[in-house]
Structures are given as structure tokens and as C-alpha cells.
Amino acid sequence: MLWLAPTPLVIASKSAVRRAILADAGFPLEVTEADIDERAVETRGGPVAPDQAALLLAREKARVAAARFAGHYVVGADQTLALGERRFNKPATRAAARDQLRALSGQTHALHSAVAVAKDGRVIFGHVETARLTMRRLTDRFLDAYLDAAGEAVTSSVGAYQLERLGIHLFERIDGDHFTILGLPLFPLLAFLRREGCLAG
């Protein structure tokens, strides 16, 4: 067995992609959600850079969920997207997704993904990584076709795309780790869990 801890790993996330990444890596999983006020967490200590906002959110999700799982290692994760100084959140509607994609069209944006681990109410690990993604110039005709094909999925992610699905058609260049782009920097997490003795070395 690769997983050596006496209790399953807990993932505090609504993301099916993050859960699948950990399940595919062989982790015995328990799934929960951490209901936090994300905007309040981000602004608690004043304005923060997008990468640090992702880390703050990941840490808070792990900490809140760990209070319900004594003795477990609890993973929290989050992702932010920035185009220069402009931050983007999940679009609430198709029209908002379209506006967002038009703003990103032909540009290189930064996707910041953070992971944190808490145990017994204390955050014991945190890490953030950045990928840079360049969108090709998107025509109105293509945007309509993409939005029709992707449907409601465009409102479920910070960039109005899932790179592992139809979102791949938006891009001409990607610089960064695959798992970081999917929202869970996996290699730093695995290294931490090995140091903790939870994973076979």
C-alpha cells in the first residue's frame, strides 16, 4: 500500500476534478466541503496578491474542514486567475462568461493554484504555484459555438473554461504544470505527505 496513515485523506472541495486527481493517485478519500465566505477571507488583512489569495483560501478551507475530522490529514485547495492587475472570479452567467473570455482573448493570464493541509485544526502545509496560459484571439462566431457546446460548465470555473475538456480549444500556448492548471499542485502535496510518513517513500 502507498497510503500509510491510519485514516483516509480528506479533501475539502466541491471540485470533481480535484477529487478525481487524488482518487486516481490511489488515495483512500473522504470528501467534504468547507463553507467559507471567500471574499471575506481574501480581504481580512487587507488587499493581497492573487497568488496569496489562493493560498489564504486553501488554508482556510483545510482548517475549517479539519475541525470536523480529528486525526485526519485534510486537504484544501483554491485557484485564482489574474490578467495583469485584474482579478477574475467564476462568471455567474453565460453573458458574464462571454465578457470574461473576450477580455482574455489574445492575452496571457496567470492561473494561481494553491494547496494546503491541516490536521487537528492546525494548518501544517501550504504551497502555491502559477501557470501562464495564452489564449488565441477568439472570434464572436467561435465564442458563440464554444458557449453553446460548453453549456453551464462555463460558470463552474474561474476562467470560464475546463482545460481538460472543451476549454483546450481556447488556447495557443500553456506554460505550467498540468495539475496546477487543473487546480491542485499535486507534486508538492505528495512530497509533503511523504515527509509526514503518510506515503510510502
Describe, in plain words, how this protein is organized in 3D.
- The chain is α/β, with parallel strands linked by helices.
- The chain has one domain: Maf protein (Alpha-Beta Complex).
- It is built from seven helices and seven strands.
- Strands 1, 2, 3, 4, 5, 6 and 7 form a seven-stranded mixed sheet that branches.
- It is globular.
Question: Can you give me a brief rundown of this structure?
Answer:
The chain has 201 residues and is of the alpha/beta class.
Determine the CATH topology: Maf protein
Please tell me the total number of domains: 1
Run of helices and strands: EHEHHEEHEEHEHH
Q: What is the gyration radius calculated from CA atoms?
A: 17 Å
Number of strands: 7
Extract low-pLDDT stretches. none
Summed over residues and divided by their number, the pLDDT gives a mean of 93
- Distance from first to last alpha carbon: 11 Å
- Any guess at the CATH architecture? Alpha-Beta Complex
Report the total helices: 7
CATH classification class: Alpha Beta
**Percent of sequence in beta strands:** 25-35%
Strand count, sense and barrel status of the largest sheet are: 7 strands, mixed
Helix/strand class: alpha/beta
